[in-house]
Each structure stands twice: as structure tokens, then as C-alpha cells.
Amino acid sequence: MRASIRPLIIPALALACFLGLASPALAGPQIQHWVAPTGARVHFVESRALPLVDIQVSFAAGTALDPADKAGLASMTQALLDAGAGNLDEQTIADRKADLGAQVRGGADNDRASLALRSLSSPVELDAAVELVATVLARPTFPAEILERERARAIAGLREALTKPGSLASRQFNAALYAGHPYGNNSSPESLAAISREDLADFHRRYYGANRAAVAIVGDIDRATAERIAVRLTEALPQTTAASPPPSPTPTRAQTFRIPHPSAQAHILVGQPGMAREDADYFALLVGNHVLGGGGFVSRLTREVREQRGFAYSIYSFLSPQQVAGPFQIGLQTRGSQADDALSVVRQTLDTFIAEGPTADELQAAKDNLINGFGLRLDSNAKLLDHVAMIGFYGLALDWLDTYPAHVEKVTVAAVRDAWQRRIRPDQLITVIAGGDGDRAPDAAATPSAAITDGAN
Amino acid sequence: MFRSPRLRSVLLGIAAATLAASPALANPFETTLANGMKLIVKEDRRAPSVVHMVWYNAGAMDEPDGVSGVAHVLEHMMFKGTREVGPGEFNKRVAAVGGRDNAFTGKDYTAYFQQVPPAHLPAMMALEADRMQNLVLTDDEFARELEVVKEERRLRTDDQPRALVYEQLMATAFQAHPYRRPVIGWMPDLEAMQPEDAREWYRRWYAPNNAWLVVVGDVDHQQVFRDAEQHYGAIPARALPERRISPEPAQRGPRSSEVRAPAELPYLAMAWQVPTLRDPANEREPYALQVLAAVLDGYDGARLTRRLVRDEQLAVSVGAGYDGSGRGPSLFYLDGVPAPGRTVDELQAALRAELQRVRDHGISAEELARVKTQAIASRVYKRDSLMGQAMEIGYLESAGLSWRDEDRLLEGLRAVTADEVQAVARRYFDDASLSIARLDPQPLGEQRPRSPFAPARH
To answer: Under DSSP, is residue A259 helix (H, G, I), strand (E, B) or coil?
Structure first.
């Protein structure tokens, strides 16, 4: 369907901050939790309305574990799980998935690598799909020729990304926020070239352990079936020792990067390391961000930048909670000739928000949206799975969803102001402006800048 | 789904019909108000959530020349207030009840939606009915919002080389039919657009007899009908303007277009003129074309990826798609990015060879069965999303079809034979109906500042 939609393009991970809201009137889903005999932690929600089952298996095997000179290893390991497993080759695995009507997806972020299965709940299809995923998880063969092929594709994709101002901005932003930290490790053609087949097998052996697996299941099966599935998915995995979590990122120092690019728009990012998944300021920062730039059309940044000045189509802020402080990020794109004006408005809006906090009305509006929207954020198996998998992977309390509204409700204007003043510091903000040269006056292209990079980090 | 054009399989039929036997009751439920507004309600009571959508039978294809993009600009302006509801107030009221709201414009339609807890459905109807008739469109709000729309165009199209290629492909494949114009509009038309253009658009098309309501979620359909009667029933019907849409004349030879923009790798998109589904019960070819697209690109191991990406390593990515429903004509697409060191010409030859392979040898029984299995499973999976279900109902209406066709659409797909697939492959892929657009990637360093990024040479 080819359509053009009015609103904001908010990166998917921004949503993760707002999902999982409970209201006093609405209990969260009944999450059953146990540890499988294999050592895997299992979280299960029985949901009988539709004949389907959603399963996600996650490992602490994310990109933060990449060796610095082999950035891309975690993602490549995850991506090649189904390139061959047991005695099945790549084509057989793909055909079998399709013949079962099963959908398998996955990926790796800083903290975790995961594989998700959606299957019909009819026993024949479900058993065969689980069997296939178990084989893929435990016995990947990482064929050398497929590594070469996928490496070439990854490098081609990376070189393409390096021609796009949005990608250049993100990479510079990430590198500057997390200099010397595992979260700041961008892959490069060189780091991808350095990955060997043995590296993949070794990474898999070390980090895809049964006792490190978090299994989330939502769907049309009973507890006994869920128990069998969790065992089946993890019984062929080894027991491994846990890797120590990454250190907290060191504070950044305010710095501005300008990256030349002949695009019409400048892509602007402003931010610093934000908050961890388990963080004493979690709710004060979260609710505050809803007012600042996380609440969509009604947020301050949207009002100031988009509604009042027409500077941007997409303007947002988010906090991405991770094992340790994930990014606090403000983002927008605006025509190059007005990039500096738009950036001034963003900084002014942020500075005012940090200094004064939200108004009482704004705080109430944010709470209303977060609390009253509880049922909407959990109204499908797919949405439930996202939350249950997150709770399971990070080891959050089983009543995390149930207690959410009370935590939101307790947040005060003073608490928001206090948390934002302590945690979001103008003297630590990284600013990246990439592109927009196609819309600048010729003499403006030579504007002095605090730092210039070629964007290849 | 709302993002910019991607040339993927758009399998309408995969969106069709229930696998598990539906309850005996006739869900969804449909009625029509006296003013001509159709109401379609689907009860799905799994969670305390409801999607409320109003669709207008007015999209980019209804725009006159010179004001391309006005349907979408008006969509933005619909959030700028009425006599009763101030600018931005609509969003605030939705947010206050915990909801989310948005809108989107396509070639064939414009649609607005809110997802809210069910108790607030009548309030959403009140808001939506209000802006159907009482929009206040000031010069000042228009001027600022037009800048937002231009930024949207820069973001989605002007700085996205492959989106520019798609825009050129459509402009090349269609010369008379308005599908030749981008939904978001040509930048020079946006530059020239006036508040009165948007007001005129609103006056022409925003009437209950040009709209349909879709509600899916935790509701009782009879109550929804009563609430809709109360809020929408009083809006008077209006005479709609005559629609004079140029049909696309027969193409008489291959066409091509090229885009130069900063990129690493070239990109190729090909499109053939093919039939559109109009009569779900009696036509066969659209279903066969759907199956053909799925055999080529329906899953990880489908023919194009297997042969061109994995075996020959001639391409970084490849795709096939058929948008076989809609008010206007349809295209069948093949596209791809050649691997470094390989050329667009090589890729084009390889894509054509895959079509030729189907012409010469047909498809296997396994491939056919696989496509049908996936269609059936997808149909079940779709029921997990309220929004997805509402979109499908609304979209079928916009294409001149109905939710009543859903079973027929899946049955049509399931009845396709290998011979029918081979027959459409033989019949519809002549060069005489082919349009090609390609990206000629430019090194970043050699672009002059201020080089025009407007969509090339129009």
C-alpha cells in the first residue's frame, strides 16, 4: 500500500520507552515464570483467542560483546544462524519455514541477540516449527561460503549507508556518546572483513548458552506444552558462564560534529547517555520525556519545532533504557539553510525544560496518556510478546506491568525537574549535524565547526 | 505499511478470508446512514481497545494538475482545528484518554484514525464528525504546515535516491492516468500551493456520502451504529463533483527513465502494465499474478533471492510485487540492487531470465502449495492486530471491493493452478508494456552544493 502518512517518524526503539503501561482498573497479563531444567528462564502468557503462538528466545549476546576490531560479529552470528543447521542447508531451512507457514525473525542490539517465531498453534505445525528453531539455535553450521556472501552484502550495505546523511549522523552520534565503551562500537568494512568462520562458531559457543537464554511465549497453548517447548528450544544448548555486564559509560563532554553531505536536509541529533533499564530515575525521566518529545503531537518539541515554526516533519526525543545507560536522543531533519535556527529552538526548548520542568498541566496530560493507554499497549499477542520478552531478558519483576501506573502516578513536577537537572547536562550534550549542503548558501558551507569528521567512524 | 514505496509483494489475497471457521454471526456488520455514509463494524473483544477510522474516497488520483499533493496537505490541515476545537486540540483530547491518532493519504483515499479505550469511542466520533464539516483553515496555519509537508517530501523522497527512482517509474509508466503523480506532490506544486486550494479540496470531497466508517475492537456493533447515527447522521449529504479520470492509453513500447543522486550502488526498477482485480468471483488472472509474485519473492528462499542473491551473487537484493487492487490500473514490479562490480544491465537480464524460466517451465507443485500455505497462515496472523484488520476493511472499500470479498479472495488464490501462473507469465511481460527506472549513483564528493534535488527534469 503506498500511502503518505502525516506524522512523526519515531525510531522503533523510542516506543520501547512507553510501552507497558498499567492502570489500576486493568491488571497486566498473567505472566507465568519458571526456570526450565535446562537453566533457561521462561515467561509465559496463555492467550487462547487466536490459533497462534509467538515465541522469542533471547541471549545476552548483543553487539556490546563484539571485539573492537571485529565489530559486527554479534550481528553476523545472529544473522547466520539459519544459514545451515544440523544436517539442514540454508534452502531447506527457508523452504521448511515457508511450508509450515511459520514466520521467523530476529536481530541483535547492544544487549541481546534474539530469534522470534510465529506459528499456527495446531500441533503438527507448531511442533515442526519449534523443532526447526531449536536446531537453528543450537546447531548452526556457519558455512564458510555463506559467510563470504553475507559479508560482501553487509559491506555493500554499509558503504551504501555511508552515503546517507541519516546513517552518517547516527554513527557519529553513537561513537561520540560511547567513546571507548562497547555501545560505541560501529562496524566498518575492515571490522567485517576481519570476522572468520571460527569467530562465529566461538561467539555462538560462548554466548548462546541454555542458562543464558530467556524464553518468552505468548499464545494458544497450555502450561505443560509451554514447558515442553522451552525445554525443546534450549536442551541442545551448552551451559556457559555469564559475561560481566558492560561498565557504565563515562560522561561525555559537550561537542558538535558537522558532517558535509549534499542532501537537502540536515539530520540533527542531540543527546548523551541516558538511563538504564533498572534506574532509580526511570519514571521521572520517562514521564518527563513524554512531555518533552516522547508524547508525539502533543509534546513540547513538536509544538515548538513543527507546529509553531514548520521546521521539521519528524521531531522527537527518546530514552532507550538498556543494560547500562542507553542513549537520550533528540532527532529532527530540516532543510540545510535553517539547520542552525532549528537547532537553536531545540536547545532552547531543552534548556527551558531542564530548568523549569513540566507544568502541572503537562505532567497531568502525560500521566493521563501513559496510564489510560494501558490496554492499548497490550492489545495483541505481538505487543504482549515484546513486553514479556523484555521483562524476561532484563530480569524485571513479574508485576512490572501491574505496578507501572502507580509508579507513573507518583511522579511529581519536582521529581521530573530534579531528575532531569541531575541526569541531562548541557555541558555533556553531543550534537551532530549531517548534510543539508544542497540547501545552503554557498558561503555558508564553510561555517566553522567544533569538529569535522568524515563520518567513517 | 505507511512508509514510502517499497516494491514488495503486495498480496491482496493473502489479506483475505478466515481460515478458522468464523463464528456463525455475520461479523463484520455493515449498514448505511441516510446521508450515504457506510458503517462497517468488526467486533473483536480480546482486549479493551478499539480502532476508529474514517476513510474518504478522495486521494492523490483525484487532484487536478497543478495542485499535486493537495489531498495530503489537506490531511495535515485537518488537525488544525474547527470552530469548536482549537488547533492541536484534537491530538490533545485523544492523548488525554490514552489514545493515539494519525492519518494517511494514498493514491485512492485519505483516512484518519484513533485507537482508544472503548468508552471513548463516541468522543472520537464527535471529533471526527466535527472536522468533517467545520474545519477552520487559516492562512497562517496553512503557511506553516506547508513547510512541514515540504520537509516531509525532502525526507521521504528528495534525499532518498531509491524513492526518487520509484517516483520516476510511476511518472514513466503512467502518462495520462493520475497515478503518474506522487502522492506527496511535486515540489514546484507544493511551492505554489495556496490556502484556497486546500479549502476547495475540503469543500469538494469531505462529505458523509464520500466517506466510510470502520470500527474494529471491543464494541457492540449495534451500539456503534447508534452512536454513529447520532454523530455522523446529521451531517447532510452533498452532491459530489464529477470525476474525470483519464484512463491510461495502451502503451506501445518500452519506456525508461534515469535518476542521478548520491549513492554507492545503482538500483533498477521495472514495471509492466497488468490487470487489476475488479470482479473477485469471476476473474482469474489477478490471482495468478499474485502467485507469480510470491513464487518469485514470497519468502527467504523464493526464486529471485535464491538464484540472484545467493547462487549467482549478482545482486545485493531483489524483489517482486504486484499491487493488484485499487481504483486505478496495476503494475507488476521487479526491482533490485546489483552487487558491487555487477551492472544494472546484468541484473536486468537476470530478472528477465527468471520470468522466462516461468514462461518456459512453469512452477512446481511445491512452490504453488507453499504460496497457498503462507497465504492461509498470514490470514490467521493478521487477526492479531486491530489496526491491521481495520486497515484491510477500509482498504478493500477504497479499491471498490468489500470485506464481503475476503473469503472469495482467499478462495481465488487457493484455486490458482500452475498452468494459470505460466499463462500470465507468458501473456503480460512483453516489452511493449514495460517501464524501467534506474539509479545512476553519483559520488558524494562530486555533487556541487545547491545542486537541485528536485525530482529530475520535469
So the answer is: strand
What is the longest distance spanned by two Cα atoms in chain A? 71
Out of B48, B265, B384, whose CB is closest to A381? B384
Is residue B2's pLDDT more than 60?
A: no
pLDDT over 90, % of chain A: 88
CB contact under 8 A, B148 and A157: no
Asked whether the beta carbons of residue B262 and residue A263 sit closer than 8 angstroms, the reply is yes
C-alpha distance from A37 to closest chain B C-alpha (Å): 31
Cα-based angle A446, A451, A453 (whole degrees, multiple of 5): 90
Q: How confident is the model at residue A27 (pLDDT cuts 50, 70, 90)?
A: low
Band (pLDDT 50/70/90 cuts) for residue A162 is very high
Please, are residues A36 and A227 in contact by the beta-carbon 8 Å criterion? Answer: yes
Sign for the CA dihedral angle at A68, A70, A76, A80 comes to negative
User: Is the sign of the CA dihedral A14, A17, A19, A24 positive or negative?
Assistant: negative
Contacts of A162 in chain B (CB under 8 A): 264
**Does residue A448 register a pLDDT over 60?**
no
Identify the closest residue of chain A to B385 by CA–CA distance. A380
> Does any CB of chain A come closer than 8 Å to the CB of residue B76?
yes
Q: Which residue in A95, A100, A157 is closest to B301 by CB distance? A: A95
DSSP per residue, B277-335 = ---TTT--HHHHHHHHHHHHHSSTTSHHIIIIIIIS--EEEEEEEE---SSS-EEEEEE
Cα separation of A32 and A384, whole Å?
13
CA-closest candidate to residue B227, choices B327, B124, B355, B136: B124
Distance, in angstroms, between B150 CA and closest chain A CA?
8
Residues 385-424 of chain B with CB under 8 A from chain A are 385-386, 391, 395
**Residue B252 grid coordinates:** 506501445
* pTM for this entry: 0.92
Residue A298 has its nearest CB partner, among B48, B76, B91, at B91
Q: Which residues pair with residue B441 across a beta bridge?
A: B261
Distance spanning both ends of chain B, measured CA to CA: 28
Residue in this structure with the C-alpha cell 509465559, named with its chain if needed: A44
CB A216 within 8 A of CB A392: yes
**Could you tell me if B102 lies within 8 Å of chain A, comparing CB atoms?**
yes
> CB-based contact (8 Å) between A27 and chain B?
no
H/E segment holding residue B381: helix B365-382
Q: Please say if B285 is a catalytic residue.
A: no
Interchain CB distance below 8 Å, A264 and B159: yes
Cβ neighbors of B88 (< 8 A, separation 6 or more) are: A297, A298, A303, A307, B79, B80, B81
Please give the sequence-ordered ranges of beta strands (E in DSSP) within B23-142, or none if there are none: 29-32, 38-43, 50-56, 100-106, 110-116
Q: Which of these, A140, A139, A101, lies nearest to A122 by C-alpha position? A: A101
- The helix/strand/coil state of B150 is helix
Q: Which three cell numbers stand for residue B295?
A: 513464487
Strands (E) located in B143-241? 211-217
Name the residue among B98, B143, B381 with its Cβ closest to that of A373: B98
pLDDT of residue B25: 56
Distance (Å, rounded) from C-alpha B343 to C-alpha B401?
A: 41
Mutation for A interface: B264, B371, B439, B447, most A CBs within 10 A: B264
* B448 touching A (Cβ < 8 Å): yes
pLDDT single digits (tens) A218-235: 999 999 999 999 999 999
Residue type for position A57: V
Task: Return the pLDDT at A374.
Answer: 84
Q: Which of B179, B253, B310, B145 is nearest to A94 (CA)?
A: B310
Q: Is B309 on the interface with A (CB under 8 A)?
A: yes
As a whole number of Å, the end-to-end CA separation of chain A is 36
